[in-house]
Amino acid sequence: MTRLSSATSVGYPSQMPAKRISWRRLAALLPNSIGLSLKPVTPHLRDLHLVQRRLQEDFLGCEALWTIFVAAAWSYRYRTRLRPLPSHWNTIDLVFNTLADAPRLEVLQQQLMHCDYQACSPNVVRLLTDILVDQADRVSLSSLRPCEFEELYAHLGMSPPKRSPTQIFEVRTGKGNEKGEAYARLRQENKESVRLGFYGCKLEKVYSLLNSQDFLDNGKYLELTCDINEALARSKPQAGVGGSRCGSILRCVALVEFVFQDNETSRDRKQVIIKYANTMQVSYLLMYGQSCKEYAMERQIKLMAEPARELLIWLERYHEKAISLGVGLLIVSSMAHFGSTFFRLFARTGFHVFKRGLL
């Protein structure tokens, strides 16, 4: 409450007591040009400030971290990909609905710069805080500039890849990361056995690879290769977040540091089998981003250069299915008239597939 000072004028004696006027009444009496703002206090304002600070420190690193999380959440294998599930989230349906309402990080950054704290719902703010702040305290991504790529290759003693990545991120572990602390102790005790390997995978696998401590349970293992180009060939493209600076179509190669302790190797000794999560740690993450148009052009060039290559690869990988397909084609073709040109070609194709499957 505010007491207005008494004013003396003709017809108004100075002995009249001043009236008490509330702030709301005063704001209603004042002109619009000098009106008082009575906006409600924004919930989660502190969380928004923390998110804004992370975006200002390394926007590209935050975008990569968010893209990795979204890819794991939208995967039909989210039960194994989204591990651990962020705190404050009990069901995957709630995560889906919140992701649908979340704006692009670039738009969010512009809104926060203009002090627009009302654009995001409380659930969106909570999810952004869990991924970009809380989990980033345990595992975060720090982006490297393109001019630093060659320095990194020289520092690691590796030859540059045939295809240069669009982004490289250094994986940093915080103090509360038990997995990182366990590996640091093991590395300190076995400095002479530290090796580097490459792991090419889909984008949806990276989240559990960085955050989960039990992603190698139940007989699972990682197969690392010493050739980064081979690892890139094993990485299948996957759609990222629309409008992301990382790219619309993404491939990932993880540079893994591990302690070699009687690990199994392949017959040609080019791959190393990792069965225990505490013996390895992802040091760098190489991302290969493309636009949808660039990806379509690349696919078209490959098909024109080697039109039957993908069919032959499928036959080699899935020879049992190829045999079944060939037998099915032969049975269907035998039901038709022998002189039909179409079914004669059908039978010839079925016999060829059947033969390739047997070989």
UniProtKB/TrEMBL annotation:
Superkingdom: Eukaryota
Pfam families on file: ARTD15_N (PF18084)
Keywords: Glycosyltransferase, Membrane, NAD, Nucleotidyltransferase, Transferase, Transmembrane, Transmembrane helix
Domain PARP16 N-terminal: 54-132
GO molecular function, one term: glycosyltransferase activity
N-terminal signal peptide: none
Membrane-spanning intervals of the chain: 322-346
Similarity-based family: Belongs to the ARTD/PARP family.
Name under which the protein is recorded: Protein mono-ADP-ribosyltransferase Parp16
Species of provenance: Drosophila mauritiana (Fruit fly)
Upper taxonomic lineage: Eukaryota, Metazoa, Ecdysozoa, Arthropoda, Hexapoda
